[in-house]
Amino acid sequence: MDRGKKPSKLLANKNSKNHMDLQDIIRESALPFLPAKSLRRFTGVCREWKLQISTPFFAHNQSYSFRDVSGFFCQSPSGALSFVSLNQMAYGVPDPSLKFLPEPVDIRCSSNGLLCCQGRTGCRAYYICNPVTQKWKKLPQTTANHGTDPAVVLVFEPSLLNFVAEYKLVVSFASDLDGYEFEIYSSIDGSWRISAEISFGKMKLLPRTGVHVNGVVYWSSSMGRIFSFDLSCERSTIINNIGSSSLGAVNGKLHTACLLGSKLSVSELSNAYTNTMQMNSSAKQWQVKHAVTLNFSVPDLYPRSYDKETVLFLGGDVVVIRHEKKLISYNMKTKEFTEVITEEDTYSRMVPYVNSLVEI
């Protein structure tokens, strides 16, 4: 009988060790890849997980590891703010109204967990915040007048080497010289400066279309072309577009998503310099990477208003489409569709957001 009990105790000890090993693997290798809302819920699993998730090092690691679009900050014509989650169990923020900020704001843009807002009173200051941690920073007053609906792009690329977020805010504004100039805020310098670059032409930028891809900022224009500003050399160029489409970053390259009727196509900018090549060159500027037929159709209205764009977001493996009171997420890798019902279809602004613990 005694000999029969010993193997049972050894087996129990072995199973207990395997359980602890699995807990360590999950804590160290899986948790950093989860969104902030899920992590806040997992702090109740055990004391070790709570301590792990609460450390600044873990927040830094999570902000680097988790990059998936989680939902949209929405603003109604009256200014009311809300958050539409693409997965209510996984993604969310404590206060979608952003009342932790010192004044009412308009949402402008976001980048990898940081949200850029602009005050609605006084000098209309810019704020950079993380809605999960409710920490924020008020930027100094700008040098130039950016107008009532500025063309703003927040540039933040998480790095394992930087424990505090280093970001830039790039604004293209109308110049007195009948063109566009650029004012740039750097979190490292803590100040604004106006670039020497001036882009001339009759093209009008569409303010809420800006994206950042691999060191270059892009905006759509009213003439159906793409306006780019290279941050490394601070030079602007014009790129031919393929119709009315939304811009986004996929695998470190600029992509466009275009929805005509029930046909969704995603194209990659393979060569931005075809306008400088020989006339008979076979090089193509855009290459279609994905094409899919949806089970619904969108009226083909032209010209489209940029604040009513059907394709709301393009990035990573995901395209998010607005259709009536639905947000439809399409995963280009798995070919799967996910639907989310929104409260209304009259939002004046919808800004994509990543559910991150990034520190400001």
UniProtKB/TrEMBL annotation:
InterPro entries: At3g26010-like (IPR055290), F-box-assoc_dom_typ1 (IPR006527), F-box-assoc_interact_dom (IPR017451), F-box-like_dom_sf (IPR036047). Residues 109-360 form the F-box associated beta-propeller type domain. The lineage of its organism: Eukaryota, Viridiplantae, Streptophyta, Embryophyta, Tracheophyta. This is F-box associated beta-propeller type 1 domain-containing protein.
